[in-house]
Amino acid sequence: MLHRPLFRRLALASGALISLLAVTSTNAASDRKFVTTPTLSVEARTLVNLLEQAHYNRDAVDPADYGQVVENYMGDLDGQRLFFLATDKQKFNEQFGGKAIYWNLYSLGNIDAAYEIFRLYEDRAHARINWIFEELNKEFDLSGQDTYRVDRSKSEWAATPAAADALWRQRLKFELISELMNKKSMDEAKQTVRKRYERMLKNVADLELNDVAELFLSNIARIYDPHSTYFSADTFEDFGIQMKLQLVGIGALLGIEEDYCFVKEIVPGGPADLGKQLKPNDKIIAVAQPGSEPVEIIGMKLRKVVEMIRGTKGSQVKLIVEPADATDASTRKEITIVRDVVKLNSARARAAVFQVPDATGQTTVPLGVITLPAFYGPADSEDPEAEKTSATKDVARLIEQLKDAGIKGLVLDLRHNGGGYLSEAVDLTGLFISRGPVVQVKNYAGEIQIDNDNDPAVAYQGPLAVLVDRFSASASEIVTGALQNYGRAIVIGDTSTHGKGSVQTVLEMKNLVPQLARTGEKSGAAKFTVQKYYLPNGSSTQLKGVVPDIVLPSIDEFLPIGEGSLPHALVWDEIPTSFFDGSPLDAKVLTTLREASQRRQAQLDEFAYLRKNVDWFKVRQEQKLVSLNLQARQQQKETDETFRKEMKTKKEELAKSDFPFREFRLGPPPPPKIKAEPKEGDLPEAVEDELSTDESDESYAKVDVHLRESLRVLNDAVELGESPQYWASNHPPLTLAAVNRKG
Question: What would be one Gene Ontology cellular-component term for the protein (predicted)?
Answer without folding.
Answer: outer membrane-bounded periplasmic space
